[in-house]
Each structure stands twice: as C-alpha cells, then as structure tokens.
What does this fold into?
Amino acid sequence: MAEAKKQEKPSYEEAREELVDVVRRLEAGGTTLEESLALWERGERLATICQEWLDGARERLRSAAEDQSSATS
It folds into this structure.
C-alpha cells in the first residue's frame, strides 16, 4: 500500500510542502554532496509536479472562461 502511494502523483499542496522542506534542508547545509544532489533532484521533480498542477489549473480556468464567453454570445 505504501509503495502504491509513493507512485501516485502528489497533490499540489503535498508537492509544494515537500519542496519547501527540500529547500530548507539544502539551505541549512550539513549534508553530504551525494545527499545534496539527491535533494536537488527531488526538488526539481517536485517543482515540475507543481508546475504541471498550475498549468492544468490555468487551462481549466481558460476553458471555463471560453465556455462562459460562448454561453453569453
């Protein structure tokens, strides 16, 4: 069950929260180079996930606005 959860795409809020934690850990220092690289890579993946959510939301809003515009024409 835990393995299935890891493979699911996290919500925007979950990804953002984890990204904030990754940045905090990187800024704090005290990690090895290998740990820092792993954190950086995870941060990049999380940033991509957040951007995908934002792009999807933007598209939904654009579509809704177009639908509204069509309905009033």
